[in-house]
Every structure is written in structure tokens, then in C-alpha cells.
Amino acid sequence: MSSTHSIEHIRARLASAGQEHLLAFESELSAQQRASLLAQIDAIDLEHLPELIEKYVAGKPDFAPPGKIEPAPYYPAPKPDGSQSGRRWDPQRFRSAGEELIAAGRVACFVVAGGQGSRLGYDGPKGCFPGGAVSGKPLFQIFAEGIRANQRRYGSTIPWYIMTSPLNHQPTVEFFQQNDFFGLEPDNVSFFPQGVMPSFDLKTGKILLAEKHEVATNPDGHGGSLKALFVSGALDDMRTRGVEHISYFQVDNPLVKVVDPVFVGLHATASDSSGEMSSKMLPKRDPEEKVGVFVMADGRLQMIEYSDLPPELAKERDSGGALRFNAGNPAIHMLGVSFVEKLNEDPRFALPFHRAEKKVPHVDVQSGERVDPSSPNGVKLERFVFDALQLAERSIVLETDRVEEFAPIKNAEGVDSPESSARIQTERAARWLQRVGVSVPMKGEEPDCTIEIGPLTALEPSDLDPSRVDGPIGAGSKIVL
Ligand code: UTP
Fold first, then answer.
1. In CATH, 69-410 is 3.90.550.10
2. CA 118 from centre of chain
3. Which pTM does this prediction carry?
4. Residue 97 neighbours by CB distance under 10 Å
């Protein structure tokens, strides 16, 4: 690879793709750096690059909303008092079906943890971030405990697959090793990196150099997971273990149910589900809330990004005053193993790209100086997992409650921050405690304290033992159960 012949060959290929600047510093590199740079260049699909740049970097593909969009039907959330609104269904029946599958070892957990977490600005994989409202437990530990609690309850093994990216793979694996896998059997925890895409200069469409010997890259989006599950051998491993369904969640939500028997049961056994890909939804707070919504278009369930939903539809209300297009996307899915296998039968399988303008630090090819941009200078291309919904035959949606299952940590402060997450975690804990007769100090509508209930203590309110709470909870106190 380091021979002159290889360099000349690669230089010619780069030139025909308009990217010869990637070798601008080649003569300054050590043999090792040169070999590494050439290997990175070799991994880029140079042949199709000009077309890709034309479409997504130079151009901004217009989203054409499907002709006729209808609200997505969904299974309304089971209410704690057993009451129901909207479509009638039997949560208990599906819960039993899901529990059987979990107990038989047919369900695996899958967290996508390859993102760069740039909004949070945390130095390290986001899963290592202290997510517990009081304990400061890392997000990975909270999920590990959720898995342990479910394994204990169902007497089975729930293998856990963790998608990293080449940029955070090593620190993620080391974090688990240093923490004894948070009590999980290491054999049941697998890590695999997702693919990457080169990052492009916004103005010129040229690939940026992160270092003189390194192409600037970004992980190829959570949608890259559907390919990475296959390429990494994770799907084969699932087959060997007898796993049929995958519980998919994001790394930033400490309240997620790592596996939800009702959702598993609906996905795997409801007559309107093909068992391929299912989704949870959260009712949107208001028309302006920046979440994608599930819709029906051309007879298939689809997710439309908030920026692509025509504003007049976003505001439409039904006769009862509720938003018609209210099915917000919290990014919680079930995937059938055979569905992901089927997608990968075609070696060219890939979800479409989405374009994002971001700040990309790089080396200036003229001066060799490092540039740390203060405004977006680059284009990143990512694939989104929800685009696979349209590839499923019949896909169901289950409503869920925001306070019960959604407290994401995306930003350093404000909306979806550690602080707002802690507030929602407390709100859920307070609700659960009140349900078993423990009183919680309140200031108006909000709990006047911070409470965290770990998954090993309770997966749901009925697991709580009120006698474990020592005396009355004081105003302003912080407690972990
Ligand atoms: P986000 O859309 O919040 O992106 O990811 P992010 O990269 O983590 O954060 P920002 O935008 O830079 O602040 C949602 C989920 O998808 C995963 C993330 O790890 C998170 O669990 N993800 C995202 C991947 O696994 N790979 C990616 O390429 C992108």
C-alpha cells in the first residue's frame, strides 16, 4: 500500500473524484501515517463520490411530502387505573405474550451509542455520562441494571448489543471492563462499531482533513445500525442464541424501558404487526415541538421530520381539540431479527442520507494550520433508522407516557438537559411512590425534592416496597431508592 505505485494509483483516483488535496501533506508523513491515510482513502467509495456531493453537499435535496398524509393509528397507552381512550385493546394479553418471549430468551437489547454527543459537549462516550438524577450513575450502568432486573424477573438471559463508532469504540469497551460490566456477564455484552462517512467542506464539497494524515469522518447515523448489525456478525450471534426480536433504544434516555413486555408482545403478535419494525410514540406537547411525527402515507407508516411536516397539518386539531398529527417520535423501536436480515440480503442495502451542517475542526490544506470553526463549515451525511419503517409490511405504534419513559439528555442546559432529565426522573419516582402510599413533598405541581429509583429496586410501581422509604421524605432532600 505504501509503494509509489499505490500512491500514484490512489492519487489518480482522487483526482478523478476532485479530492486530490487529501494527499496534500503526503510527503511530510511517516511511513505509518502514510499507510493509515491511504487505507482510509481506500475505504471511501470514490467512484460514487461526485454524485453524492452534487446531491447532498452542493445541493440540498428537497423533501417532497407524500401526497396524502393521514395521522398514524396507534395503541393508546395503558392507564394505571385500567381505563382506556381511543382504540380498545387488551394490554394484559400482549404483556403475557411479551413476557413469554423474554423468558424464552427470544429478545435482545440494542443501544445505539455511536453518536458524537456534540450538543452535550461531554468529553467521552455519552453512555459514560452521569445520568442518574441523584446517584450520578452513568447511563450505561442504568441500562445494565435495567437488563439485570429483567433477567432476574424472567429468569432468562437478555444479550445486550452496543453500537459504538470507530471514534468512541475503545473508550466504551474500556469503560465496561473497568466497571466489571456493571454486574452483567461479559459474554452477553457485545460491542461493534458502526460505519463512518467523510465530512465535507460546506462551500467546496471537498473532504476535510482532521489531521495531515487523517480524513475527517463522522459516524453514519443511527440508521447505519441496520447495516452494522449485519456486517459486525451481531445478527449471526443473535441467531445462534435464539434471539428473534431486538429492543432498540438510544443512549441518552435514562428512563427508557430497556425491554417492555407489552411492546414486545404487540410487535411480535398483534395481527396488524408484521413483527418487522414497531415504534413507540409520545403525544406532542404543542404543534411547534421539534419532534418528528409518525404518519400514514401510501398505506405505510412513516416518520416525517418536524421541519418537513407542513405547518397547516402540524396545527390541525380534531373535534375534541387534540392535535391530529400528535404521534411524536421518542426513538424507541422493536426490530425483527429476520427483518434486519432481509434488508441485508441485498448487499447494496442502505437507507437514504440526510444532510446536516455542522462545525468540523480540520487542517487547512493551504496553510497546514488547524482550524476550529465557530460556525458550521462542514456537511455531515447520516442515515436515520426510522427510514426503515417504510420497508416494513405492517408496522404498529404504541403510545407511551412522557414521564414514564422519556427523559433525554441531549443538551448541556435547558430543554433535554441533565437538569430537565433529573426533574422528569423525580416526577416519575414521585408518581410511583404516591401510588404505593408514600407521600412526597410538593411545591405546587412539582415534587419539592430529587428522587431516583434504580431499575434494580423497581421496574414498575408495583415492585416498590413502601417500607424501604425511611421516614417522611423531607422538602429539598435527595434520595436514591
Ligand atoms: P443524536 O441525534 O442525539 O446525535 O443521536 P448525537 O450524535 O448523539 O448528538 P449531537 O447531535 O452530536 O449532539 C441519537 C442517538 O443515536 C445515536 C446516539 O448515540 C444516540 O443514542 N447515534 C447517532 C449513533 O449511534 N450513531 C450516529 O451516527 C448518530
1. yes
2. 14
3. 0.95
4. 18
Q: What is the pLDDT of residues 8-17, one digit of tens each?
A: 999 999 999 9
Distance 112 CA to ligand 1 centre (A): 8
**Per-domain residue ranges of the chain:** 4-43, 69-410, 411-481
116 CA distance to ligand 1 middle (Å): 6
Which atom from ligand 1 is nearest to the alpha carbon of 220? 28
Q: Is ligand 1 within 6 A of the CB of residue 118? A: yes
Please tell me if the CB atom of residue 234 comes closer than 6 angstroms to any atom of ligand 1: no
Q: Which of 173, 246, 147 is nearest to 454 (CA)?
A: 147
Task: Quickly list DSSP for 41-84.
Answer: HHTS-GGGHHHHIIIIIIS-PPP---SSEEEPP-BPPPPTTS--
Note the pLDDT tens digit of each residue in 37-72: 999 999 999 999 999 999 999 988 877 777 789 999
Using the mean position of ligand 1's atoms as its centre, give its distance from the Cα of residue 113 in Å: 7
Residue 306, classed as helix, strand or coil, is: helix
By the 10 Å C-beta count (0-12 exposed, 13-18 middle, 19+ buried), 87 is classed as exposed
Place of cell 418487522: 276
